[in-house]
Amino acid sequence: MENIKVASVQFEHKNGDKVYNINKIEEFVQQACKNDVDMIVFPECCITGYWYLRKLSKEDLMALSENMSDSKSVQLIVKMSKKYNITICTGLIENHKDNLYNTYIVVMPDGTVKYHRKLHCFVNEHMSSGNEYTVIDTPFGWKVGILICYDNNIIENTRITALMGADVIIAPHQTGGCRTSDQNIMGIIDSALWENRIKDPISIEKEFKGEKGRGWLLRWLPSRAHDNGVFYVFSNGVGKDDDEIRTGNAMIIDAYGRIITETWKAADDMVIAKLDASLLNDNTGQRWITARRPSLYKSLTKLTGKELDMFTARFSGKGA
Length: 320
Known about the structure:
Distance between the termini: 36 Å
Structural class: alpha/beta
Number of strands: 14
Order of helices and strands: EHEHHEEEEEEHEHHHHEEEEEHH
Helix content: 25-40%
């Protein structure tokens, strides 16, 4: 395999404004094209908007959603991918047989469209969770896995995706600055700091770099890459996401869990990194995987009696 160049984007979407959001996506794709990027990664649900979805009725969600067979948004991204010769990864709401999913699409320059349905969907009770892992063959030879936001919290999801052959895992999010009753994770960011970010970037960026943003991510995100021997591309919203402030922190991590590039700017931003294919050969995580003893792990598939539905698990006050 050859080295590839990847971009990770953070941007502030507009709720329900697909035209604005897709235009913003194209602005970043244009920049990425000038930098010879092979694949560009955008945040979860950035075509539709995210956190405000929790307030919508099923009828409103249906109106916002699109079917993969005739999605206008997907058609626009396909044209964009062909025009700029870049694999584009982005998110929206999918309607499939009257079931609604938080879906992430990967569009390749030859017109191929692949997608992943979020495995742990909680944003709205009328939306369903997907039931399949996703690893995609790409035109640049790398196998790409997808885990959307909360999917990455469950360590088994990353391990299974790696075992399926993923070289790099795309991790689109809308996180940081989340409301929680657990004082040990994240917490609300004062919206006034975001509104005043131009005059006082230091105060808001301190929050983004602190425990509500980067500090939280570094507790677990690099370990997902290192322990499984895969590259990780973390993309996130930034700024206002309904009544919360997302922290951005777009980041690309190598297969040893080292941060190659990142940003903590309180603004729309993009980071670009070259992924060194040689790091996929016999790295620490892959060596650990070869030492697995699957016969010991049968208890992983047994119910403990502590399982909760996704909505209760997320909104019990402890989930992130």
